Amino acid sequence: MDIAATLLASDEAFASTLLIILLDRFGDSFLSGEEGTWTPETLRLEIKDHFNVDIPDDNLGKLIAAIAVLTTDNFYRSLPSFLFTVHGLLGDGTSWSYAEPIDLEDLAWGMQEAILLSPPQEDLFDSQIVAYCQTMIKREGLLAPPAVLTFAKEEEAYGHITSYDEDVMIEQADRTNAVNEYIEEQIQKLLQQISSIPSLNTSVDFLKAAIMSELEALYAEDKWL
Description:
Blueprint: H1 3-9, H2 15-26, H3 29-32, H4 40-51, H5 57-71, H6 74-77, H7 79-90, H8 104-117, H9 127-139, H10 166-195, H11 202-220
Helix pairs in contact: 2-5, 5-7, 7-8, 8-10, 10-11
């Protein structure tokens, strides 16, 4: 089994990696073919035919979520689409509930990978998405969000901080930094994974280089509190 096939079957594969593999093999026909975006079943059948792999449901969900990020702006405009996409990118399949809170690390990584795939054209998210992220940040008891979730920062939350809260602030900073560190680790893993994919065509080589450049820039950012 070659590297692409191995990754398609691996639960360690990132959505971005899977998407690059398909772009290399099929071009963008599965995104915008004559009959539109391929259905999940068509994706499954084509992957089986071209790679001799029965793609796991979780990886198929990652691909569907990544394709949705590329082809629509619903991730930034609709809370149900946002939640669907984050769960999909994380490999949660379809067995999750909207009522189930998303862990802060998972929320931050889902947001990071979606932004990597398709940066927002504006620095504006739907107000319900912002409120959801604020709720998840508050659920952790944090005043300062992880770097990728700074759009959900509530400036007024700092108004009551006093010098007597130093221990609390240190504890919160440790938690926020732990999430930032997790995102850096994920970025490094994604860099290594994408680097392992050989024999890409010219157009996908360009995309791969662009994604890796962005990942390296993200990895180099100072996010510590």
